[in-house]
């Protein structure tokens, strides 16, 4: 039986993710693009047609900061009005009720102290090596030169290299939602000696692994614990059903809180946990206004990108090899321009990088968009927000999809680098440390906040529009896997 944060049930008891997702996107567009809102409302093939409407959300916001923030506010409001809290008896309450709902149990805290020595400098694992100091700076510069990341990444990580004392995040407690996630910062932060509050489902195997990671590190791990439960289910909490409990537990911890959302789930559950995490953030900031928020955005989304990215992509398209030009022309002709076309109009300023991957589905896209809306709204309201585009990474949740795994295997042929989990999560943890340790730049438009220190893997600066090369990358990836 569905319980906790959920999609609303219709008269027949069905909980349609399509109906809810379409309504949220339409409501988000309505304040600035009523025609786009109508288009989303009337989309009859949502599971394939959603890509157009998710891109339109970005296009409509480029007009100005007010438009961007109006979309974010309307989208978050639509999530609160559309999703519900389902009780075991089948009744439903508004999602907004979680702001004041009482806890049904009190979570205690188990503390696990690391037994290792803290890393006193930033070390990045990469292709079997451990990069530090000058070698790490050289790799960052190489990534920037190849267009794998924005130049601001090298600047930010360079400051962390210069200030290894930042790594411990003294005086802060980082709450990691999705403690077992491969892309989360838990392992890196514990290696550096930080304090981490871990939140994840009550699964014994998961908590055994997390606690082993803590003991191998040098930090302080805080685990929610229910002394009244049986031993097998004593650690962890189900955020879908326990937003008040998790909020009250985190609010009582020492140190300045950082709420980091690294949650992932399949299908519609991803939207549910994104909405639950957003309700948790709202409640926690009300209780502790100095709480900071942290997010990792997926690169397979639509983003506004700076003129410099457009220029590098344009150069890459103009300078592609003779063989690429020879193959590309008939492919574009045969597919009516769908394959291997340029990423941007040459003079675009800014450009829009549309790297939405249809196979990931509308629920994944909406869940990640909820995080972007919250980041923009919270930053506007004065909350410290660490938000970065993270690279495509060979996590278990991604490579179990054969089509995506094949596309990843062939991506390097189109200027895109796919990262290994230990490289990606350490790099993104270093950016989190930077953001919590220094004053972040102030930008004129919220899209520039999203583009700041983005590690997109090359999707923004490669020669071709990502979807126009995805199928060929997958075909080449399948071929290489067979050889």
Shape: globular
Secondary structure: helix percent:
40-55%
CATH architecture of the largest domain: 3-Layer(aba) Sandwich
How many beta-strand elements? 14
Distance between the termini: 46 Å
Low-confidence stretches: none
Overall pLDDT, averaged? Answer: 93
Could you describe the 3D structure shown?
This protein has 483 residues and is an alpha/beta fold. It folds into 2 domains: 4-103, no CATH class; 108-306 and 349-482, Rossmann fold. It is 47% helix and 13% strand. It contains 18 helices and 14 strands. It has helices at 17-29, 34-41, 46-61, 65-82, 133-146, 151-162, 186-192, 204-216, 243-251, 268-287, 307-318, 322-334, 361-380, 396-399, 402-410, 421-437, 446-451, 466-482; strands at residues 4-6, 84-86, 92-94, 108-113, 124-126, 129-131, 172-177, 195-199, 220-225, 256-261, 292-297, 302-305, 351-354, 385-389. The strands form 4 sheets. The chain has a 7-stranded mixed β-sheet with strand order 4-9-8-7-10-11-14, sandwiched between helices. The chain has a 3-stranded antiparallel β-sheet with strand order 1-2-3. It has a two-stranded antiparallel ribbon with strand order 5-6. Helix 7 links the parallel strand 7 and strand 8. The longest helix has 20 residues, at 268-287. The radius of gyration is 22 Å and the shape is globular. The N and C termini lie far apart (46 Å). 51% of the residues are buried.
């Amino acid at each position: 039986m569905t319980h906790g944060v959920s999609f609303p049930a219709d008269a027949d008891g069905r909980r349609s993710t399509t109906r809810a997702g379409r309504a949220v996107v339409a409501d988000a567009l309505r304040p600035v693009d009523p025609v786009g809102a109508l288009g989303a409302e009337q989309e009859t093939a949502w599971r394939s047609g959603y890509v157009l409407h998710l891109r339109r959300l970005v296009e409509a916001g480029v007009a100005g900061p007010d438009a961007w923030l109006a979309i974010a506010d309307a989208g978050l409001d639509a999530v609160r009005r559309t999703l519900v809290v389902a009780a075991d008896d089948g009744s439903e309450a508004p999602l907004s009720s979680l702001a004041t709902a009482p806890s049904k149990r009190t979570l205690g805290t188990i503390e696990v102290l690391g037994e290792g020595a803290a890393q006193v400098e930033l070390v990045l694992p990469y292709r079997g090596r451990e990069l530090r100091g000058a070698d790490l700076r050289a790799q960052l510069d190489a990534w920037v030169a190849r267009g794998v990341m924005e130049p601001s990444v090298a600047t930010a990580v360079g400051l962390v290299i210069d200030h290894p004392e930042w790594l411990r995040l003294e005086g802060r407690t980082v709450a990691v939602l999705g403690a077992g996630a491969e892309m989360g910062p838990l392992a890196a932060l514990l290696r550096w000696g930080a304090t981490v509050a871990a939140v994840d489902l009550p699964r014994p195997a998961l908590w055994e692994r997390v606690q082993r990671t803590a003991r191998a590190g040098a930090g302080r791990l805080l685990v929610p614990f229910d002394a009244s439960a049986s031993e097998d289910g004593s650690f962890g909490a189900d955020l879908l059903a326990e937003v008040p409990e998790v909020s009250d537990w985190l609010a009582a911890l020492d140190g300045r809180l950082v709420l980091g959302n690294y949650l992932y789930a399949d299908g519609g559950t991803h939207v549910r946990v994104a909405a639950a995490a957003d309700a948790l953030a709202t409640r926690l900031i009300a209780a502790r206004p100095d709480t900071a928020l942290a997010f990792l955005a997926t690169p397979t989304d639509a983003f506004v990108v700076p003129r410099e990215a457009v220029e590098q992509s344009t150069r890459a398209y103009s300078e592609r090899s003779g063989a690429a030009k020879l193959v590309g022309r008939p492919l574009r002709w045969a597919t009516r321009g769908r394959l291997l076309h340029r990423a941007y109009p040459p003079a675009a300023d800014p450009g829009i990088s549309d790297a939405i991957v249809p196979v990931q589905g509308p629920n994944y896209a909406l869940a990640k968009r909820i995080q972007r809306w919250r980041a923009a709204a919270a930053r506007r309201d004065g909350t410290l927000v660490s938000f970065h585009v993270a690279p495509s990474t060979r996590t278990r949740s991604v490579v179990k999809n054969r089509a995506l795994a094949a596309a990843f295997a062939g991506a390097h042929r189109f200027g895109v680098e796919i990262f290994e989990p230990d490289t990606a999560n350490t790099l993104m943890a270093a950016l989190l440390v930077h953001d919590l340790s220094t004053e972040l730049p102030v930008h004129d438009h919220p899209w520039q906040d999203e583009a700041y220190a983005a590690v997109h893997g090359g999707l923004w600066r490669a020669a071709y529009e990502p979807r126009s090369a995805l199928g060929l990358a997958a075909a080449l990836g399948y071929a290489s896997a067979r050889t």
